[in-house]
C-alpha cells in the first residue's frame, strides 16, 4: 500500500509505539535487534517497508541493551508493538488516525496522546503480575541475518509477536464469575431485595449466563422461597 500518511512512521518507536522526538531517536542496531529477538522471541522485521518505523526510542534501546547485559530486570511490556501493513489509511493506519506529531506535540504533551489499537498496529501488552520475565542468555552470538530487517508480508502465518499478542490478551483476559445457588441466596439477602426484584435479578443473571448449570430454574422456585423466608423473619 503506497504510504501517504499524516505522520511519518519514523516519528514513532518501533518497539513501544510511542512518539519519539529527534533527540530521543536511536537507530535499531544489531545489539537492539538481538536483544529484541531474545526478549520477545520474535525478530524486528519490515525494515524495508515505508509503513513500519525504522527507529526506536532511547529508553527502549537502553533498556534492551542493559537487559542483554543483565543490568535491567524487565521491559514495561511483555509483548511489543506489532506492526502490519495497513489495509486502508482512514480506518487502519496508525500514522493517519493518531494526532499529528510534528510541530504540534511537545515532550510534555506526548503522554496525553491516545493512539489507536488497530489490526495494523497492535499496542503493547503491559508486563503484569504472574507473567514470567525472560532471562538474558549468558552467551549469545550476532548472526549475519541480524543486520537485515525481515519482512513478514505474504507469510501464511501470523508473525510470532502477533501470535504472542493474541495469546497474552486471551490468557490474561478476565473471565466472568458464575454464581451458584447459595451465593445468589446470600446476595439477595445482603442486598435486602424484595421478592419481585430478587426474581428479576435471577432472571437477568440467567439471561447473561452468569448462573451455574445446577440452578436453571432457581429464581422461579427456590429463590422465591428463600426471599419469602427472609421477609417473614424480617431479616
What does this structure look like?
- The chain is mostly helical.
- The chain has two domains: 9-171, no CATH class; 181-233.
- 31% of the residues lie in helices and 6% in strands.
- The protein contains seven helices and six strands; from the N terminus they run βαβαββαββαααα.
- The chain has helices at residues 30-40, 58-68, 94-97, 160-171, 181-191, 195-207, 222-233, and strands spanning 25-27, 55-57, 77-79, 82-83, 121-122, 125-126.
- The strands form three sheets. Strands 1-2 form a two-stranded antiparallel sheet. Strands 3-6 form a two-stranded antiparallel ribbon. Strands 4-5 form a two-stranded antiparallel sheet.
- α5 (181-191) runs parallel beside α7 (222-233) and α6 (195-207) runs antiparallel to α7.
- It is elongated and about 70 Å long.
- The termini are far apart.
- The relative contact order is 0.13.
- Residues 148-159, 168-173, 216-221 and 230-235 have low confidence and may be disordered.
Question: Structural class of the secondary elements?
Answer: mainly alpha
Which regions contain 5 or more consecutive residues with pLDDT less than 50? 148-159, 168-173, 216-221, 230-235
* N-end to C-end Cα span: 68 Å
Question: How do the strands line up in the largest sheet?
Answer: 1-2
Beta strands, count: 6
List the helices and strands in order.
EHEHEEHEEHHHH
Beta-strand share of residues: 5-15%
Which keywords apply here?
mainly alpha; 235 residues; elongated; two-stranded antiparallel sheet
Amino acid at each position: 500500500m503506497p504510504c501517504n500518511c499524516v505522520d511519518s512512521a519514523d516519528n514513532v518507536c518501533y518497539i513501544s509505539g510511542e512518539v519519539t522526538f529527534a533527540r530521543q531517536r536511536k537507530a535499531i542496531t544489531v545489539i537492539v535487534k538481538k536483544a529484541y529477538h531474545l526478549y520477545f522471541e520474535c525478530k524486528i522485521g519490515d525494515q524495508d517497508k515505508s509503513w513500519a518505523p525504522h527507529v526506536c526510542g532511547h529508553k527502549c534501546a537502553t533498556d534492551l541493551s542493559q537487559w542483554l547485559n543483565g543490568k535491567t530486570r524487565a521491559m514495561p511490556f511483555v509483548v511489543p508493538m506489532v506492526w502490519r501493513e495497513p489495509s486502508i489509511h482512514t480506518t487502519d493506519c496508525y500514522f493517519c488516525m493518531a494526532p499529528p506529531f510534528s510541530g504540534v506535540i511537545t515532550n510534555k504533551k506526548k503522554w496525553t496522546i491516545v493512539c489507536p489499537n488497530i489490526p495494523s498496529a497492535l499496542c503493547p501488552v503491559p508486563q503484569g503480575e504472574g507473567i514470567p520475565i525472560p532471562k538474558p542468555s549468558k552467551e549469545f552470538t550476532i548472526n549475519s541475518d541480524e543486520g537485515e530487517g525481515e519482512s513478514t508480508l505474504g507469510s501464511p502465518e501470523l508473525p510470532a509477536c502477533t501470535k504472542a499478542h493474541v495469546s497474552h490478551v486471551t490468557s490474561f483476559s478476565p473471565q466472568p464469575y458464575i454464581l451458584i445457588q447459595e451465593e445468589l441466596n446470600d446476595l439477595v439477602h445482603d442486598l435486602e431485595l424484595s421478592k419481585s426484584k430478587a426474581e428479576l435479578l435471577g432472571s437477568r443473571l440467567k439471561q447473561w449466563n452468569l448462573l451455574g448449570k445446577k440452578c436453571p430454574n432457581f429464581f422461579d422456585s427456590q429463590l422465591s422461597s428463600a426471599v419469602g423466608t427472609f421477609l417473614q423473619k424480617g431479616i
